[in-house]
Amino acid sequence: MTGINWEDPFCGEGNNCFRIGTDPDGNAYIAIAGQEDHYLTDTREALRTLIHDIKAGKADHLL
């Protein structure tokens, strides 16, 4: 898909590298680096909430 502005990859220690992107229509995308053609998409607000919750430790039980 064209129009997605991908950020530099974020790599956790020993984990896959992820990329976050946005488009001019206000959508947000997340994908595994190198597999940007297979992404999840939602609103920027939903992505912002996801990142905030992860930083707050609300997803630690998933690790």
Structural notes for this entry:
The chain has 63 residues and is of the alpha+beta class. The chain has one helix at 44-55, and strands spanning 5-6, 10-11, 17-22, 27-32, 40-43. Strands 1, 2, 3, 4 and 5 form a 5-stranded antiparallel beta sheet that branches. Strand 2 (10-11) and strand 3 form a beta hairpin.
Task: Describe the structure concisely for a colleague.
The protein contains one helix and five strands.
Question: What would the keywords be for this entry?
Answer:
1 helix; 5 strands; 63 residues; alpha+beta; five-stranded antiparallel β-sheet
* Helix content bin: 10-25%
Structural class: alpha+beta
Number of helices: 1
What's the N-to-C terminus distance?
30 Å
Summed up, the domain count is: 1
Low-confidence stretches: none
**Major beta sheet, specifics?**
5 strands, antiparallel
Instruction: Tell me the overall shape.
Output: flat
Number of strands: 5
User: How large is the radius of gyration?
Assistant: 12 Å
Q: Which percent range describes the beta-strand content?
A: 25-35%
What is the typical, i.e. mean, pLDDT? 86
| N-to-C SSE string, H for helix and E for strand | EEEEEH
Ordered list of secondary-structure elements with their pairings:
Blueprint: E1 5-6, E2 10-11, E3 17-22, E4 27-32, E5 40-43, H1 44-55
Antiparallel strand pairs: 1-3, 2-3, 3-4, 4-5
